[in-house]
Amino acid sequence: MITSSLVPKMVNFLIDYLTSGWGLQFLSAIGTSLMVAALGFISCIVIGILCTLFARSGFRGSVALVNLYTYVFRSLPDILLLILIFYTLDGAIQALLNLVPGMSDMRLSAYVPAVMSTSIVLGAYATELFRAGWADIPLGQHEAGRSLGFSPFQTLVLIILPQVYRKIIPHLGSLCLISMKETALLSIIGIPDIVRTASLGARSTGSPFVFYGIAIAIFVTFAILCSRIFAHLERSARQNRAGA
Amino acid sequence: MSLLLDYAREILQGLGTTLSLFVISLAIGFVLASAVAAFQIRFPGIMARSVWSLMFCIRGVPLLLILYVVYYGFPLLSFIRESFLWSLFASPYWCAIICLAFVEMAFTSEIIRGAYNQTPKEQVEAAKSLGLSGFQTFRVAILPAMLRNGFPPYTTEVILLCKSTALAFTITVMDIMGYANEIRARTLDIYHPLLIAGGIYICIVVFTRLILSTLFNLVAVGGTEAEDRA
Amino acid sequence: MTATACFPMSHKETGSMNETSHAPAIEITGMSKWFGSFQVLDKIDFAVNPGERIVVCGPSGSGKSTMIRCINGLETFQDGRITVHGQELTQKTRALDSVRKSVGMVFQQFNLFPHLTVLENCTLAQRWVHKVPRTVAEGIAMEQLKKVRIPEQAHKYPRRLSGGQQQRVAIARSLCLRPRVMLFDEPTSSLDPEMVREVLETMADLAREGMTIICVTHEMGFARSIADRIVFMDQGRIIEEAPPAEFFDTPRQARTQKFLEQVVR
């Protein structure tokens, strides 16, 4: 039943693809989603590392502050946070631009607050991840680094982070996948990502299964690639540790 | 201040919808997940692997997309429109529940499977050597260990589901997020309605965590009792 | 303890090697340290001459580990001062860095970097802290690994090595930086008994070469054969300080006698 209705629709879609340019739309949507996902993934890792360092810095209240961040952000719906942060940042950035003379009529691309809000939301997950990984590193590793004369930054980059990385690779894989899935929410804000393009196409052509099908295929492909890549990373790290 | 109270009163109308979305999809999702996990454990090999792959794919697709497919796509299928299923898929509320339960199944089945695989083999062997039947072994040796191992990740998953219910507003379900969003659209006031909604969600999550940790303590103790009785 | 027989050397023989230099390698004056309201170190006065081998012993919780960790700046102290080769140890990063460059430290738990091979463990600090080119650093590392008698393990990861081997790598790793003083914090306490000897032998080799050594240990046989002086600590104070023969045979303090009765049976 499904296939009988799908085949002519596939054919129709191919004709539409050649004439109306949905293919190009999808390509640019994939580009948008991948870009936002990649930037979000990278900056949420940076946020995670910075928050972990801040929580371990010993400043009064730093632990409580980081706990508050992760607890609140892991309790609130992502879409609610995204809308809140997106509009706050959008307004703030625009207000800042207005302060600079001659820039007042410049509109900043909506991608900037979009990527920033995604990163802040995902940063809460990354922070918990890095804090857990960090807690597993024995204090002796820090001490050995210091006693060999490494600066705190060198100890971090050469000794601590490589070990944290090896411990959390599988979780980084799922964080990467979540980053990609999170881009779907941006369609609600109006960013032309994969989901938005698919639903626009579905509505304007009246063949939802083709468009949604393509969107699903893209996400599934990404999930498979993601799991392959991170499984490979994990394997190579394990071989490393097992030694020659 | 009175404006905020008005907002709060309006948004709270969606509380029942959010809670029922959450609880019903949690229950259905858990039953489905148990079935899927049991199937994978019972029939290892190609069958289990293909089921696992299917679950993997579902986990890779954003919930929003699944909601769109079910709500906007399914009504176009004639066999749905012309059968009893129509009454189900015509309602955005039930569409949301079906989607949430579907995604919940994919995530929870993996948690259950993981918890099962973590069960120490010696305990199972010890139970079998005492002459317990298959089901008794499961109840006495496997289940308590599974509960202990699976509960922490399941708690995380339940909270994630609770957060996911907020997406139901995208298919016109009037839950907490739905009412907040309506006020936002009507008054162009972004902060107040969303912050009030956020406060309500935090309360729900805090209560959920409380209930789950109480349950976990009961189960952890109960699990050892079951072993003692046997 | 039968370990004495393992280290046939007289401390008097090599002790004279460094007598030309008069400035103490390490000088601690009036150092006190508190953890909250609990005083861990109480007015420690203590000096080590270049080339001297000091063994610090005492019951657990006596503050002996804390004291040598202070010398390396791993712990802060609230009162008094420490000078290492004439340079005062402050909490300023620059002073700490230059002191750490001349002081090597070996830990109870080895603390090798698990994500790096043995060779990389030995070259990492040379390359990043001392800016030694890679090939030179590897040459130095292999030299030190030969000295601790495990050059064949250079390309393995620490996890594949026995505890004794790991500790010897840790010693080599410190030696690669050409320290003038070596601190050992209970280097054999987490080793299986059969591996204690290989580590002690490595340390004896070092002592024979005239390295300044401060070692916290419970290996009394080692202490007797290697040390120039033995320092006994209890409750954050230095109770007794004497050459090994005097320390073991005619201890002056009652607490020392009691400790020796418990340790040397």
Strand and helix map with partners:
The complex is a heterotrimer of chains A (244), B (230) and C (265).
Chain A (H helix, E strand, L loop, with lengths): L1 H19 L1 H34 L6 H14 L2 H22 L11 H25 L3 H9 L4 H31 L3 H4 L4 H12 L2 H35 L2
Chain B lengths: L1 H11 L2 H28 L3 H15 L2 H11 L4 H4 L3 H5 L2 H27 L2 H9 L4 H31 L11 H12 L3 H39 L1
Chain C lengths: L10 H5 L10 E10 L2 E11 L4 E5 L6 H8 L7 E6 L2 E2 L4 H10 E4 L11 H11 L5 H14 L15 H13 L5 E5 L7 H16 L3 E5 L3 H7 L2 E6 L2 E6 L1 H6 L4 H10 L2
Parallel strand pairs in C: 3-8, 3-9, 6-7, 7-8
Antiparallel strand pairs in C: 1-2, 1-4, 4-5, 9-10
Helix pairs in contact in C: 4-5, 4-6, 5-6, 6-7
- Structural class, from secondary structure content of chain C? alpha/beta
General shape of chain B: globular
Radius of gyration of chain B: 21 Å
- Please bin the fraction of helical residues of chain C: 25-40%
Instruction: Look at the helices and sheets of chain B and give the structural class.
Output: mainly alpha
Please bin the fraction of helical residues of chain B: over 70%
Beta-strand percent range of chain C: 15-25%
List keywords for this structure.
heterotrimer, A: 244 residues, mainly alpha, MetI-like fold, globular, C: 265 residues, alpha/beta, Rossmann fold, six-stranded mixed sheet, 10 helices, 10 strands, disordered N terminus
